[in-house]
Fold these 2 entries.
Entry 1:
Amino acid sequence: MMTLRQLAAKPATVPQMTSWYLADLGEARGKQELFTRQSPQKLKALREHAIIESAVSSNRMEGVTVDQARIATLVFGKPVLRDRDEEEVRGYRDALKLIHEQGAKLPISEKTIKRLHSLARGQIGDAGKYKERDNDIIEKLPGGGERVRFRTVPAAKTGAAMKEWVERWRNGLTERWVHPLILLAGANLDFLCIHPFRDGNGRVSRLLLLLQCYHLGFEVGRYISLERLIEQNKDRYYETLQISSQRWHEGKHDPWPCINYLLYTLKTAYAEFERRVGQIAEPRGAKTQVVVDAIGRAADPFRTSELQMACPGVGLDHIRKVLKQLKKQREVECLGRGQNASWQKTPAWGKR
């Protein structure tokens, strides 16, 4: 909560790099709806692939691995689980399913956080319960020794710290101390520094990142695995955490390396999403499908001007071309003449 306290004080300046990331992400969010209307089968494949990658990558970062040949079965089937690692991968899948199905309707609360932890830990042992003993982050040295890399919030103060974390997240969104994405990244750093659970904190932090993105309207995590991108750059991930956590307890830390890392990850996810959708959608048929989908959602009668608003990035000439083709196929009919004429779907709509 020390980062959220800093942000509540309204920082005088936001680093230039952070501003660039925010601008790029704002543009990406603006395109999001257009992309999610294209190529339903491709999007379905992306969703399924993202769930597999997320469940595997997030667990693998914590040393939990499973047989590659069983991953798809673990995620989408109901096999008899062989060991503890498979239980945790399956549990993480269940947590992802909960977030993807409920999205922003799932509140950011202590109850939700404990539930996500319970699922991700396979609902055994102390799953869903805050730590009862202090659990500092220990680094193993090359020579075999160990050192304390970071002292987390003591177990006795964890409940109060998490209560404040939730309250400051909510207040930050309401009072708009900073851009919501900065608040999101700062909250993620604080969660990891509090380290509220005995084990599984990294996995829950990544689940919370996905859930908080939903709350802010950034839904790229549905199609591109944020966990996989973090794992691919895990050295930088751990480096920025180490830098940003120094002097965290005193509230004199520098959160921006960690904040910028997470914003960069989101930007990378959107770039990959656009590229993957574009590979199949852009050459031919994508814009036509966007128009057809908009007509399907429209209430009869509708006008071309309404379709324009529902189809950002699609020109009026193309909309008219699609209407003309659908009229030829007797799926729509024009109710008048001229540019402002109304249209409606016929009983033959959708039967081709």
Note: Residues 28 and 271 are 8 Å apart (CA to CA).
Entry 2:
Amino acid sequence: MSRRVIATTLSALLALVLLAGCEAPKTVEAVWPTATAERTVPQPAGTLKWPLTGLPAPSAEAVSIRVASVKIENSPAARPQTGLDKADVVYEVIAEGGITRFHALFQSQVPPVVGPVRSCRPPDLFLIQQYHSILAHVGGPQSVRTILASDKTKYNDMDQFFNPASYSRSKDRAAPHNMYLDITKLRGFAVSKRGYAATETVMGFDFAPASQTATPTVKLVTVPMSGMDTVTWRYDTALRTYARSINGKAHKDAVSGKQLTARNLVVIWAKITPWPGDKHNVVDIKLAGTGKAAVFIGGQRVDGTWTAGTDAPPRFVAADGSTIKLDPGNTWIQVISTTQAISSK
């Protein structure tokens, strides 16, 4: 046997001896925690939306900014108005004698100037509670102003009589149709001078994008507000908005020169009665409770009801009990008497 073979054999025998003197390796098991529930991954927050338009908002702080309610005149001498095109929601209601007036709600947009601003009316008592807003106006019936002053927690009043720095008169029009408002100043003074909250949580409307494929079935809506004013809204299929006219003439904004439009048009029927003790035909309009409603979205008409308390905007419900969801965008609400009728075609 050669020396190389002997060496190889001895090496193999030595390896066997060494292995025999060692223990077999133990099985190694990984230590994992016992699962008691399926692991979940936090979902990213959804896009913030403005509560009154359903459109994307820049921040949580933005959506809590105080809504400003502005009482805007609608007599012929007041037209064209300034800033109504930037309001999230506009109510049109009877003031007295067949003249209508607007209650415009601003949150997501702040135009430099709004007006002409005029006096408050009884329906404002409901609306500023429902939208938790501060109210901008120039005086009003003493009985209404007394109520506004009676409870600072319910009514955050910013009457021009006591907050003149937020308002100014234009030289382009005769008084009293020339009072205009700076909303930014109004909000600042509401906090610093009156002690009102800078932010509020506002209950929004229910929103869902309207169908863009459904064929419009209603293109013209006529709302006789009074013997003096008839409002018409014509649906534009391309823009998916309703364009406003009053007494046959396009109703335009004074600054842009463009016709006023609404993404959503809502007509609500409410009880309208004389305001107790008033000698100027001022009316009370009950905007809490329930009543008939017609909602126009995307060229479609949905009939149903409106329901509202004193702490949130109205909800709209269809005849089948489902919630009527508005198309994201601005909304105009026409308030008429339970005895009046509208037409749509």
Note: Helices lie at 3-20, 60-63, 124-130, 142-150, 183-192.
